[in-house]
Design a protein that fits this description.
This protein has helices spanning 21-29, 81-97, 105-113, 128-136, and strands at residues 2-8, 13-18, 43-45, 99-102, 122-124. The chain is α+β, with helices and mostly antiparallel strands. It folds into two domains: 1-52 and 79-97, no CATH class; 99-148, no CATH class. Strand 4 (99-102), helix 3 (105-113) and strand 5 (122-124) form a beta-alpha-beta unit. The protein starts with a strand and ends in a 17-residue tail after the last helix. Bound molecules: zinc ion. Zinc ion binds next to loops.
C-alpha cells in the first residue's frame, strides 16, 4: 500500500491510497480516481512518489528538533484533524472503488495476502475477531465505516 500526493486539474491537492503506482495508473485510466474536493477525474500524481507523511506543528515552537529520527518505532502519530478528514475521504474513495467481496472478505484478504488471488483492493464485511486475526497474520486491514451504497438488503 502506498500513499500518493495527488492533484486535480483544479489544483486541489489530496492523498490517495493505492496498492502500487501501477494500480494508481490503472485506476486513473479508468476514471476511478476522483478529486476529494471537486470529484474531478483529471487526477495526476505529484512527481515526488510515495511520500513520507509530514508531521506538521501549527505553532512554530522549537520542540524536539530531530525527533522524527526517533519516531520510527513509536506509535502512529495522530494526524491533525484536517489531515484525518482528508484521509477518511481518501479511504472512503478507495473503498468505493474497491471490489466488494462482502462476507468473503476475510477469506479473500488471506488469498490475496498469500498470492492465491490477484492483488487488488477489496472491501467487505468482517467481524472484529476476523479483523484482528487478519492483522495478526500481517494482512493490511483498514477497518472503516463506509456508507453503504444501495447494498442494504
Ligand atoms: Zn479538485
Amino acid at each position: 500500500m502506498i500513499v500518493l500526493n495527488l492533484s486535480c486539474d483544479q489544483g486541489h491537492q489530496f492523498e490517495g491510497w493505492f496498492a502500487s503506482r501501477n494500480a494508481f495508473g490503472d485506476q486513473v485510466a479508468k476514471g476511478m480516481v476522483n478529486c476529494t474536493h471537486c470529484q474531478s477525474a483529471a487526477v495526476t500524481a505529484m512527481p515526488s512518489g510515495p511520500h513520507v507523511r509530514r508531521v506538521r506543528h501549527d505553532n512554530n515552537s522549537n520542540e524536539h528538533p530531530g525527533s522524527e529520527l526517533n519516531a520510527d518505532n513509536s506509535a502512529v502519530q495522530m494526524p491533525a484533524p484536517e489531515v484525518a478528514r482528508q484521509l477518511f475521504a481518501s479511504l472512503a474513495a478507495m473503498a468505493r472503488s474497491a471490489e466488494n467481496v462482502g462476507l468473503k472478505f476475510p477469506e479473500e484478504a488471506r488469498r490475496i495476502h498469500y498470492n492465491e488471488a490477484p492483488a487488488r483492493t477489496i472491501r467487505g464485511i468482517a467481524s472484529s475477531d476476523e479483523t484482528r486475526e487478519l492483522m495478526e497474520e500481517g494482512i493490511l486491514v483498514l477497518p472503516a465505516l463506509v456508507p453503504p451504497e444501495n447494498e442494504t438488503h
